[in-house]
Specification:
Elements: H1 2-8, H2 36-52, E1 66-70, E2 77-78, E3 105-108, H3 135-145, H4 152-162, E4 166-170, H5 177-191, E5 207-210, H6 214-228, E6 235-238, H7 244-251, E7 258-261, H8 263-271, E8 282-285, H9 288-291, H10 297-305, H11 313-316, E9 325-330, H12 335-344, E10 350-354, E11 365-371, H13 377-386, E12 394-398, H14 402-414, E13 420-422, H15 428-439, E14 445-448, E15 461-466, H16 473-480, E16 492-498, H17 501-516
Parallel strand pairs: 4-9, 4-10, 5-7, 5-8, 6-7, 8-9, 11-16, 12-14, 12-15, 13-14, 15-16
Antiparallel strand pairs: 1-2, 1-3, 3-11
Length: 535
């Protein structure tokens, strides 16, 4: 009976007979409660945890490389330390909902000089001609941008798109997604020049790129124009903030090869029947996660329903009656995207192209989290801006609302800090001028809402400040992705102010993902069920 009672107790460790107080006359029963290998592993972890309490230096006197640096040394994590899949790590942010935690902070160290690289089996030696790209396009890339080698996402996406496949393309911010879809788009326009143009009161563009904001649309239109002009291809753009007359003048009686549009302007043109998608060869939904926002999703559904979508490569590559090839692009691919596309297209016709770093935290961007009282945020921001050196890069300060942008702008004016403001309530022309001034380096500090977090392509940004913590993990990835982009000469840094209890919930998810080196929760790639993963 005594042995049975011992076996029913919680199995935590192995105890020798002497430790149980057995007398010499009693029969000693050795109870093994966990496997020996497991016991040794627990002891090793306990020893390693205790060694960290002594400080960041190892026994050899060398400085340890850290993955996460905490104000409290015992909570720091070494770069070589691995947290088990089912293990619950001790988080710095665990107690951040209490007001006494104000003043605490931690940072994710920069563990790479550049973005996550692809797997070793990726063919690193591939060039643009090897991918099937026209030599004339390759020459334009080298002449206009000095680009001679494709990025990892371009290596994966361009061959798939050149074959005429519908595709979901997901890659981390700053990885070269715009050229990944524009190059196959332009090449398809060149190979389809034998098809007649339809002109008249109703415009029939041959390709269409839909983007969620005027700023991003203008940026993509600029890149597309540089690619298309040498071939005599006509690129036009329509954006919100203008009346139907201005939209009509942009596209009427013009053989439009590529139309770059925002959802609002596109909706007006389709409802007034001044635009038709009957002869569309190529459709791109850029920043697809934003286009699934409740304000855009109905338009996206109507757009797909009015487009003659190709259900196979054969239909897309038909010589005289080609159907529309669809490409959805984004730095995050939400699960709702697969459901939307499945309503209007055969899911088996879509190929999924994702990068290795999709939905991971950027390892080449240092990310610091500061638990603050709301009234202390201004002081911390001013200190960050004043600590910048004369050779420092540009700064993006993100706020969650237009009113905060305006109020913070007045504070910076009082301290004689030159800056620009960008928010959605501004007029279209004013927004365009501000965006252009920041892009060209006339001012190095931009206070903005999330209107600048999607697709703003600049290699000048060195520091991203989340003055207001973002509402979602999608927004966090997009904001931080404005720093450390391909071609940037500045090491990227992001500083986030954490003030509200609901902010702490997101910080915990970010810290857990960083410690376990996993994707951010809720942002799993859309590949397994709804779409095939063909090569």
């Amino acid at each position: 009976m005594a042995a049975l009672l011992l076996l029913r107790r919680p199995a935590l460790a192995w105890f020798p007979p002497a430790s149980r107080g057995c007398s010499s006359g009693e029969e000693a029963l050795e109870v093994v409660r966990i496997p020996e290998a497991w016991r040794r592993r627990l002891e090793q972890k306990q020893q390693a945890a205790e060694s960290w309490k002594e400080g960041p230096e190892s026994s050899g006197g060398k400085q340890r490389k850290l993955l996460l640096r905490s104000r409290r040394k015992e909570l720091s994590q070494a770069l070589g330390w691995t947290v088990g899949r089912w293990e619950k790590p001790r988080l710095v942010s665990d107690g951040w909902k209490h007001r006494l935690s104000r003043g605490d902070h931690f940072q994710l160290e920069r563990t790479r000089k550049e973005a996550l690289k692809e797997e070793e089996n990726d063919q690193e030696g591939l060039s643009f001609p090897d991918l099937g790209l026209d030599p004339q396009l390759v020459a334009i890339l080298e002449g206009a941008w000095g680009i001679s080698r494709p990025s990892p996402v371009q290596k994966r996406a361009i061959p798939v798109l050149l074959k005429g496949s519908n595709a979901l393309c997901g890659a981390e911010t700053g990885s070269g997604k715009t050229l990944a879809y524009l190059l196959p788009l332009v090449q398809r326009l060149l190979t389809s020049r034998h098809l007649p143009h339809t002109m008249g009161r109703v415009s029939h563009p041959r390709s269409l790129v839909v983007l969620p904001s005027r700023e991003l649309a203008g940026q993509v239109r600029s890149v597309a124009t540089r690619l298309c002009n040498p071939f005599g291809l006509e690129v036009r753009g329509i954006g919100g903030g203008r009346g139907i007359g201005g939209i009509r003048r942009k596209i009427r009686d013009v053989p439009v090869d590529l139309l770059v549009a925002t959802p609002g302007a596109l909706c007006k043109a389709l409802r007034r029947h001044i635009l038709s998608l009957e002869h569309l060869l190529f459709l791109v939904l850029d920043e697809a996660d934003t286009l699934l926002d409740p304000s855009f999703v109905d338009l996206a559904r109507d757009l797909l329903q009015q487009t003659p979508l190709a259900s196979s490569r054969k239909e897309a590559n038909d010589v005289w009656d080609p159907k529309t090839q669809v490409v959805a692009v984004g730095a995050t691919l939400p699960k709702g995207l697969s459901e939307l596309l499945s309503e209007v297209a055969d899911s088996s016709s879509f190929h999924t192209v994702t990068s290795y770093g999709l939905h991971f935290l950027q390892p080449h961007v240092e990310q610091k989290f500061m638990r603050l009282k709301g009234s202390d945020k201004v002081t911390e921001l001013l200190q960050l801006l004043k600590d910048r050196g004369p050779a420092s890069g540009a700064v993006l300060v993100f706020c969650n609302g237009a009113s905060t942008v305006n109020w913070l702008g007045y504070i910076l004016d009082d301290h004689k800090i030159k800056h620009l403001r960008l928010q959605g309530q501004m007029q279209a022309d004013m927004r365009a001028d501000i965006f252009d001034s920041f892009q060209k380096g006339r001012c190095d500090i931009l206070v903005c809402t999330d209107i600048a977090s999607r697709g703003l392509d600049t290699t000048r940004v060195e520091l991203v400040v989340n003055y207001d913590f973002p509402h979602t993990l999608h927004d966090y990835l997009h904001r931080v992705g404005r720093a450390g982009r391909i071609g940037s000469t500045f090491p990227g840094t992001a500083v986030s102010f954490v003030t509200h209890r609901w902010d702490v919930d997101l910080v915990r998810k970010i810290e857990t993902a960083a410690r376990k080196r996993t994707r951010l929760p809720g942002l799993e790639p859309v590949v397994q069920k709804a779409f095939s993963n063909k090569k």
